[in-house]
């Protein structure tokens, strides 16, 4: 690699500035630690595979056998998606859901497509927030982590709000379909928007609790 053989020449292509990663404090280095830990464990798994391929392949084979056993022993039929309020095994839930999606593909694509512009808008908003922070000078230390975390929280709130609207419209669509009535994505969204106040209030409560728990770091499992 060039960075090993000629590190100085390789460094000439670096950018002039970067955001500082906080080394401590409330926010710490959770994001970078997660990435580095993933790379470390993946590398360790690869090393074990190369050193003792038989043992690694045996473990993978056992996992595959357990998965195949679960799939074979699962109850997949009947796959009738109606009536919705019915006790089902997990295999029946998957098969009935697949049949529901395939049978009403246009409806569910129309419901889910709302998230595309929302994701684009959230990304643009987060980019603008970081650009504004950068325009007021170098953002370093815990302040850099705070700005990044703030952009993450804003994105989370907007995403959960949009997701809640989509889920409400989807639930309404399923109720209408279960009753044998025709329904379109526009009709389902009209129903969801009529209940936008209580819906966003619920999302806000969940989001505040999630933010409070994840800020501490060690309470992230409770938040999940």
Q: Keywords, please?
A:
75% helix, 0% strand, 11 helices, extended, single chain, mainly alpha, 224 residues
Task: Give structural notes.
The chain is mostly helical. The protein has helices at 2-5, 7-11, 30-51, 53-73, 90-103, 105-112, 115-135, 141-178, 185-194, 196-216, 220-223. The radius of gyration is 24 Å and the shape is extended. The two termini are 40 Å apart. The model has no long low-confidence stretch (mean pLDDT 82).
Oligomer: single chain
Distance between the termini: 40 Å
- The shape, in one word, is extended
Gyration radius from CA atoms, angstroms? 24 Å
Instruction: Tell me roughly what share of residues is in helical segments.
Output: over 70%
